[in-house]
Amino acid sequence: MSNDLFSPITLGDLELPNRIVMAPMTRNRANQDNAPHSLNVEYYRQRATAGLIITEASPISPDAVGYPGTPGIYSETQVAGWKDITDAVHAEGGHIFIQLWYCGRISHPDLLPNNATPVAPSALRPEGDTITYEGMKPFVEPRALESSEISGIVAQYKHAAEMARQAGFDGIEVHGANGYLLDQFLRDGSNQRTDEYGGSVENRMRFLNEVLDAVCEVWPNNRVGLRLTPENSFNSMSDSSPQEHFSYFVEQLNTRQLAYLHILEGDMMTKERNVNYPALRHIYQGIYMANNAYDKNRAQTALANGDCDLVAFGVPFIANPDLVHRYQNNLPLNEADQTTFYGGDEHGYTDYPFAE
Ligand code: PHB
Description:
TIM Barrel, eight-stranded parallel beta barrel
């Protein structure tokens, strides 16, 4: 029998009851301490029937922040807030990984300690504006990291991985996607370094490899997932040869036996897909999670064709806390209200109705 969304799957030593994953989604509803609180507990509890929840991206240190209201994973207060969430999800029989995030050039001095200049592989300013506490402001030109600074950031990843264990998560997802710091190193549109962290694919992957080595000292490798985006142009990203370069990255990951590889396929903005994802999927020997604008039918077809093992759904989970039940029973879906995606209160967050 071929796989479908409602068939169980073994992820390392975890048994997931279905293949429907809640994708990581920024919702900007943390409290003053950038910590999760009771409102966020309710949001994740409502969605615990997902086979796996991946939390919204969580900054690994004050230096990693890039947006207001994003819950971090570096302080005791944040760990306590997340612990209430993992307890609630586990009480409902669910599983939850936290996504570890460092924004790099997708930040602003207003958001950083001592109004620091954001860091990046190279001093290349992203196009456009970003959100600060005082509204939209243009991105600034980032400062290129010294190679001697990388180990300090790797140590921040390791610390966050330890905090994630204390907070009771089932695992972590390293955010290597969407134009944030690790992705800025992977892709050559943003990485123009000439040291051991730039140039060849080996060098561009070095920082990610160091981060994976560090977090796998804290977590078993089968509790560590990784998200990549070969061709997402979001955050002014580009690469000269995504098929070739990401084939190399994916091939290299095989030896690690991670929990899963999570690929946002195509472009988040235009939904265009130019990379051959089944080809990448067949290079990868572990569990492959597909994401980006899947609906139930597309997901079932992809699973049946062997093009993925898990599918992560984003927007449908915002509006349908009981998405698994609705998909399983072919029930209509609630529509998501885009105006309440980022920031605000329970409205558009925990008040979407469950099916009768
Ligand atoms: C966002 O806040 O818009 C955002 C955050 C993390 C992502 C993608 C988008 O991976």
